């Protein structure tokens, strides 16, 4: 099956890219291994989840959020937004297609993509001039191999399987990881009567509020990042005080600089820090380094060689998804137009 553009993944990144391509009448197909688009949001998001960024930074291309929607949109409302987005742009992913390989053929200058149909078991071959990887930053769960884990008699789940802490009431639960998911899950568990502890994988990270992030993103349009970081750190110190006594230390670099250069997001507090201070949530220190994501640095991360692209991997959330989708589509449109004019 020959296509102009093949998009791998029907999460927000893939949907945004498809919408942009549709607006410019560029033929494309989306291959999605799950049986539904936005599977992470529809199947693997916990109940209390809200978007961590203000809605003006979480809209996909060509469709702003309703002015009547809350500033920080709840999960179910965002899923409704995605449903409407798919209808508006008539996006029709091919479900049950698990991409197993992609190879660039130098002879004809096209990509050959092999995808297994999970229903029939057969392999389908797609040939395309452009390939967009839009599988997202959080598409696969990772559980490290830890000594004793295979003999642990309690229940163990990954964060993408967590829905609510209600069933763990009056039990002991250890949350491993202090990123935004880990911190928010720990807060949810504690609120529901669970004896909660959290392992801090890296003792150096910034803690901010949603409002600090929102102001920082607005200021970033007008002033240098060092100024934004100075204001953000001062505000965080006022709100949270000295967190070093709880094993949490601020890095030397500011939160917005680290996000832009290393992809390290600050922890956006939803109330967890207060519970750590009051010892409702017990805090442990543990160090584990993390690496990954696109080969090229921002803002050129989305483009590879030989018409290969990646969307939604800039570590800038939904705001980055829109930026990537528009940049990719504009680049594809430019190449297509140049060929037509030859």
Automatic annotation (TrEMBL):
Pathway: Plant hormone metabolism; auxin biosynthesis. Its cofactor is FAD. Keywords: Auxin biosynthesis, FAD, Flavoprotein, Monooxygenase, NADP, Oxidoreductase. This is indole-3-pyruvate monooxygenase. Its EC number is 1.14.13.168. Gene3D superfamilies: FAD/NAD(P)-binding domain. Transmembrane segments: none annotated. It catalyses: indole-3-pyruvate + NADPH + O2 + H(+) = (indol-3-yl)acetate + CO2 + NADP(+) + H2O. It comes from Hibiscus sabdariffa (roselle). Belongs to the FMO family. It is an enzyme of class 1 (oxidoreductase). The keyword Oxidoreductase applies.
